Amino acid sequence: MRFLHTADWHIGKKLHGFDLLEDQKAAFDQILQIAKTEKVDAIVIAGDLYDRSVPAVEAIELFNQMVIEMNLQEKLPILAISGNHDSSTRLETGGPWFVQSDFYLHTRLEQAFQPIEMGDTQFFLLPYFEPISARLYFENEEIRTIEQAMKEVVKEMTMHFDPEKAHVLVSHFFVAGSEKTDSETKLMVGGLDTVPLATLDAFDYVALGHLHGKNALQSETARYSGSPLKFSLSELNQTKGVWLVDIDVQKLALEFKEIQPVRDIIQIKGSFKELISPEFYETIQKDDYLHVQLTDRAVIPNMMNQLRQVYPRIIGVERLYGREDQTAKKTTKAGLKKLAPNQLVEQFFSEVTGEEPTGQQQKWIKEQLAEIHQSERGK
Amino acid sequence: MRFLHTADWHIGKKLHGFDLLEDQKAAFDQILQIAKTEKVDAIVIAGDLYDRSVPAVEAIELFNQMVIEMNLQEKLPILAISGNHDSSTRLETGGPWFVQSDFYLHTRLEQAFQPIEMGDTQFFLLPYFEPISARLYFENEEIRTIEQAMKEVVKEMTMHFDPEKAHVLVSHFFVAGSEKTDSETKLMVGGLDTVPLATLDAFDYVALGHLHGKNALQSETARYSGSPLKFSLSELNQTKGVWLVDIDVQKLALEFKEIQPVRDIIQIKGSFKELISPEFYETIQKDDYLHVQLTDRAVIPNMMNQLRQVYPRIIGVERLYGREDQTAKKTTKAGLKKLAPNQLVEQFFSEVTGEEPTGQQQKWIKEQLAEIHQSERGK
To answer: Which residues does the UniProt record annotate as the domain Nuclease SbcCD subunit D C-terminal (chains A, B) (predicted)?
Structure first.
């Protein structure tokens, strides 16, 4: 059995306001290409297919197009589960028909215990769930944490084990000891949602979703595939891709296949003058999603607009050494009272935007204040 | 060919705040029963499956359950289109898989021209569409109205006609001369969305959706099925159900099959005293959705609460002969100034609610005013 393990597609996600649909489509095309080239028997998607429980229409269109292409056109079996970002009810629409073409999409806990058998392997598709679901399913009031729930879940799964076959678990949660980054939201504090790695020992391979880095967990037999794209600055140095998994009762072999982004997330560092000079920007991909580290301390008028003229996709600007004279400029209440109205507005503008008003802006401020002054006198 | 024609399910609709899911489920069960008893070859649903473009999770659950039961469990072919209340993209999820079990769900104009052939009949499933879609599809800038669009649509459909077969159009729009009621929202003014009946002459039968009364259109060969339930007071006197259609190249036979609601919409009329007396309310279904016509003119303290204790599902109260002394009570500005604070609040309460404050409410008003008075003095 050879399958491809991916997860955390987060279709419809935006990166600091930038639409990622085109990037997600390009990553998907590479996943499909890998699946075809490597002649996999199935594609495993370990949750968070969508980024939101109520995805936008454009996200639904893209996702539908992807699975149609993968399953109906390329005839690739799909083994998928819902993640914490998905709405299980919205996602499961169509599910009972999907199975006719070997597209298995599990969204409810009770579906997890009927293994999907393909060749010499049994797949247990366990969607993201809350402890309450396990409490109800097992009729066991003691279950309060995912760890407790998982012990029961695994116990019930093993009762369906065929000893002649390899056993794969597909699931979406936080395994103890994993490293997390910024873009996996809502991870609970205190370990209530954490599963100890030993709980998963019964399986020959655990295809995990939830964390976005492929190296989040150090284990031979349980892996996060990571997301196919970088979704936050904290994933800057991660290599993205999918696991190619060869498995049978005797052996497990893993190979990581990289995905090349259309636009990477990169970080650039320098003075404002350096960064907007062609000598610098002609050496990098200006169209990438950029995090800018500025070495200047001086106030730079109209900075963001000037940077955006060179770099259309800035996702953040950081002043590495802070800003000049920030303390010196802090004015006392008495000092404020001495300022002219236009100076007050200009100072407020600078504090909020981090930029001095331009000549034109200063002119507007004066004109508007004069107009207000006129109309006040007219009353 | 024998099929059942229904439309305008509006799953998830609320009636003056009352959830209709249970009523909709019960109506569906009867539709399914009719389909089985009458051994129909297919079920036609002419649009507005959902009430909203983004249905609530509960509505999706119910709808999914319905089509699973109908198509996968009872093996009944379904021929459905999206209506103006549906989001075509959200609805079409799963569509390419549905066809494997003869569930055809068309949501885009371009799907309408490939007839679904069943036995001796060709079905053309034309989803609700806007003129812009026809303008793009036919690459014809002249198309500005649905009437213009429909001429082109029908012309293209007839090119696919098999003369050996009967031709059925399934569509969702307003046919000129139809009578509309209150609950079909967003009907445009000025006839821009209106299709003349003659445009539909090419078809042996037109299964329409959009209007909620089965008699909205006077035609032998084009019918609205109406909604399976009453969705507004204006539908008070409508009989709800589905059409049972027998069709072949030679003949068309129609029979209307009624659906009995769990709770009807009814109107009751009488004085307040009559309506809350057991002699009256024991003669009617108190659990129905009730519109109340009150013959009293006097102000009735706490009227709504008292009525609701008897009738849990009131959707409206109407004073048939207006309210007593409304003009006489209108106070002049000078008159208002003479009122004590508590009298002012009581009068405001009466004007807004149409009820006198109860003794307890009068007490609260006085207490609160005293408290305010105290705290004002304390300043």
So the answer is: 262-352
